[in-house]
Amino acid sequence: MSIIKRNNVTIRGTGDQVMMFAHGFGCDQHMWRYIVPAFEDDYKVVMFDHVGAGNSDLSAYNYEKYDHLDGYAADIVEIATALQLQDIIFVGHSVSAIIGLMAAEIAPKIFKSLILVAPSPCYINDEGYTGGFKKDEIDELLESLNSNHLGWSMAMGPVIMGNSDRKELAEELSNSFCKTDPEIAKHFARTTFLTDKRHILPHVKLPSLILQCSNDVIAPIEVGEYMHQNMPNSTLVIMNATGHCPNLSAPDETTAAIKAFLLNEQ
Amino acid sequence: MNSKTPSSISPLAEDFEDFFDNSICGFIITDAASNIQRINKTAAEWLNGSPDEFRDKRFSDLLAVGGKIYFETHLWPLLRMQGHFDEVTVELADTGNGKMPIYLNGLERKTDTEQPVFMRFVLFRATDRRLYEQNLQKAKQVAENELSGEKQNAVIREQFIAVLGHDLRNPLGAIMSAAQMLARTALAKNEERLVKVLHTSSKRMHEMIDNIMDFARGRLGSGITINPETVNLGDLLKEVAEELKLAWPERIIEFDFDIEVGVNCDRGRIAQLTSNLLANALTHGSKDAPVLLKAVANDSYWEISISNQGKPIPEHSFANLFHPFHRQNAHSSQNGLGLGLYIASEIAKAHHGQITVLSNEQITSFTFKVIVD
């Protein structure tokens, strides 16, 4: 099966310089919709859905492979190899920022710089580290996903309607953006929120931009500061934007910060 | 709820302040970044506070941690991308008395230039509903567990059938060769008849075992495999008919062959298919009328058709005719295991052919047809 189809890779824009956008947990490539227009005149924009998300090929989901973020990182390298991409400016949101760091560790040559939007290398508090969550809170999240507590109607809509001839009903019930298979969402949540990748931060030598939001429940300000301290070639920008998705809540501010960083790097 | 006394009995004069505050569901209005600007009394009471206490809190702070993460990573992005979400189950974190499940709907209001202005959320209490859903989930889990247990049992049963069939073959083979050796010796008339009974009965038993083995193999995944070769269909069918006449000596089998070419098929399997269909016709057809064995083979197709007279196949039997262990008449000892037609249809499938059935007051016929491509 083609990697392009597996990850629902889409390519837009004109230009030789590649920008690759990777969405985070709970979303798909649609989340870049307010950011990409600002770049497609000057860059070749590559977007994709992680396997299990959006319009990726769900049959390619492998519980062993995606039990660790390494599986997702390998996919990014595979996409770059399949498309023969070089000198990529990688933009990753949330967990995909960390997946990007891991991909850069496997194949440093294919990346030029890393833009990390609301990243966190570890969500759970530890001695001398504020991740934002206590271990039992993450356990509670996983438990609520386990009992299929979340997204009941979104998950059930298509299942109830099944392959019936009333397809329009299923479509009406489920959301067209950020579709999630409940089983895969559960597994992705486990993989994401139990991750601790703090040890790889010092290995990243590529120029990196950390875009930290002001009031982000998922990645509090201490996390951005921690990353900046531990990544030798990093720039930290603390944005006015609040929440976890500045690409949706403050696209102008996000775009401006990315452009300023890229200008500086030229 | 401390409700104001409605100022008028006319519903048209509804006081919308009162409607907002004293409602059967919670209302929350946030700014575009999801900071709470207004919350009605119902929602505030559920959260064990008064509306003022929640101003400028982030909406997701009201939710238990699962919902909080879900809101920030999925629901809020959805609001920004599609403008709404519906019927999401989350829990209010702190009601002063533990968590409370709610259904949450959200809507984003935008300006003409697509700039988000504020967001509206409606909260419905879902305690009982949640319990009902949990019961459904539990029932589904139980059903799935039982089903998977039953499936395992079925596999074990079928493996047992396969082993039993296999192990019966050897002693039966010994009986058959003993009968054959006996037949070659000088025998009294009476003994000759007994040896014939031995021979035909053990042959029939052998066929039943073959069918059982094929059935088990089919169910256990390997299916019926065929080794095609060019076969003279007329000769093959006559051989099969001769064999069956041993068991039904008093019956007449008529032939009507129009065979122009050799047929590419598995000799043994087509013999088995024909034998099963013929045995079926001899068992269920009228005892006084002949059974007709027709065959056609030319460049475009070949077919084998077996017809008998007698009572038609009852309508209710039609749907299950080719199902394993289907028996037309549960009381008839002649029926065997009910695998004959099932095996025949599996052999037909393996040859990319099809068996069709016609049954009325005059005639019942089974036709196996293969289109040559």
Give a quick rundown of the structure.
The complex is a heterodimer of chains A (about 270) and B (about 375). With about 270 residues, chain A is α/β, with parallel strands linked by helices. Chain A has 10 helices and 7 strands.
Strand order of the largest sheet of chain B: 2-1-5-4-3
- What is the element string of chain B, with H for helices and E for strands? HEEHHEEEHHEHEEHEEHEE
What's the number of helices of chain B? Answer: 8
- Helix segment tally of chain A: 10
H/E topology pattern of chain A: HEEEHEHEHHHHEHEHH
Largest interface: A-B, 41 and 33 residues
Shape of chain B: elongated
What does this entry look like structurally?
The complex is a heterodimer of chains A (266) and B (373). Chain A has 266 residues and is of the alpha/beta class. Chain A has a single domain (3-122, 197-265), classed as Alpha/Beta hydrolase fold, catalytic domain (Rossmann fold). Chain A has ten helices and seven strands. Chain A has helices at residues 3-6, 69-82, 95-106, 135-146, 152-161, 167-173, 182-193, 221-230, 246-249, 251-265, and strands at residues 10-12, 18-22, 44-48, 88-93, 111-117, 208-212, 234-238. Chain A has a seven-stranded mixed beta sheet, with helices on both faces. In chain A, β4 (88-93), α3 (95-106) and β5 (111-117) form a beta-alpha-beta unit. The longest helix of chain A has 15 residues, at 251-265. The model of chain A is unreliable at 152-174 (pLDDT under 50). Chain B is an alpha+beta fold and 373 residues long. Chain B has three domains: 11-125, Beta-Lactamase, CATH 3.30.450.20; 133-219, Signal transduction histidine kinase, dimerisation/phosphotransfer (DHp) domain (Helix Hairpins, Orthogonal Bundle); 229-371, Heat Shock Protein 90, CATH 3.30.565. In chain B, 44% of the residues lie in helices and 22% in strands. Chain B contains eight helices and twelve strands. Chain B has a five-stranded antiparallel beta sheet, with helices on both faces. Chain B has a five-stranded mixed beta sheet with strand order 7-9-10-12-11, with helices on one face. In chain B, α4 (127-184) packs antiparallel against α5 and α5 (189-219) crosses α8 (340-350). Chain B is elongated, with a radius of gyration of 38 Å. Chain B starts with 15 loop residues before the first helix and ends with a strand. Chain A binds chain B through residues 24-27, 30-31, 33, 94, 133, 137-138, 140-141, 143-145, 147-154, 175-178, 180, 189, 193, 215-218, 242-245, 248-249, and chain B through 32-35, 58, 60-61, 64-70, 72-74, 76-78, 80-82, 85-91, 133-134, 137.
